[in-house]
Amino acid sequence: MIPRILRYTLGFSLWLSAAQAQVKPVTPPVTDTSVHRTDTTAHKADTIKPKAAAVVLPDSVYTVPGGLRIGLDLARFVVKAFQPYRTDVTVVGDYRIKKDLYLAAEAGWQSTSHSDTNYTYKGRGVFVTAGVDYNLLKKLLPQERYMIFAGIRYGFAQMSYEAPSYTISNSYWGDKLPGSVPKTNTSAHWVELIMGIKAEVLKNLFLGWNIREKILVSGPKDDIFPPIAIPGFGSGTKKSQFDWQYTISYCIPLNDIKVHVPRTPPKK
Amino acid sequence: MKYFIFLLLIAAVACSDETKFCDQALSTDTHMRFIRDSLGFRRDTIMSKVTLYALGRDSIYKQQAVSDVFFALSPVADSSRFYLKVDSISDPDTLTFRYSRSQHFISPGCGFSTFFSLDTVITTQHTIQSLLINQKDITSTTNDTAHITLYFGF
Signal peptide: which range, if any (chain A) (predicted)? Predict the structure, then answer.
């Protein structure tokens, strides 16, 4: 478990540092009136007191669009085609709190139903994840909302499952041992590391996809009969799980976020 | 195009149906090994004509030359009795196994299996000199260590 976490952390750090390498100083947009105002003030300050020992220039300020983005994970319907026993619905959302930082959360519901000659299985549960996304894309105009992001989530699921019937066959003894496992209530906690993109395809309408590795922190304790699927996490028999999302979202514009760009006086 | 191929590959990796394939052993056979004890010097031995069956059931081994045997305990009773004759001249023995049973979920593709935990094993001593329980738990886990070792004095 620990080497796996270290490997992901190292990979994530390398990717982050590579993305930071492309950072260029953000030039405030010339159309922003506040920039003009502060520039003018700064210019006046320079002309009035040209011999000041330490000139403190006010920050340049411009705004980027914020808002609450809510969407649906379309990949869950593709998963249903590959894993017919799972029915998942996942709602995703994020809220911009800084120029590059978003609070992000997901919530969903899962129903599991499987039946074959050996056993029948039923499960049901809900999950929620919460965390942050960091936009690594730096060369953006202030009004652009494209994202190449890295994120982290903490997930929690509450679920119940049961095996209404099972049969154990033994060819030598010729016995078919029937049985059942009553309903079990349990929960699971996990951490997700995410990388992905989002693009604004129409005004306030976004499409995006991401890949993610989910690492189970604590799961169902029952070794005799673990669940075959954990809502929001995936397989109930694995300690880590690779997954992906394809999301369609709509951003409700609520507010603009001020971005302060500190300025330093030119060196003489 | 490359974009969609990439997404399809990701989907294929992330969405494998675990209920389709059983990739683990379901059998929980008891493994019993034969040891010949000659004046304190013990060695593995191949018995020339081993016949083994549960009382009232078909033969599992019928006059086969083997050094160890694998057999299933009854999944619907807490004890099983077996007939064992290791060669054509020695007298047969009867082994009685007493155990507890529990059902375990092996995997989504395999379903359930019965695990056993040996309590006692009793044997007649016509040919068998003694026995040793090496492992009480009989599960689906593959393990080369025999659950039981039978010692023969001839």
Answer: 1-21
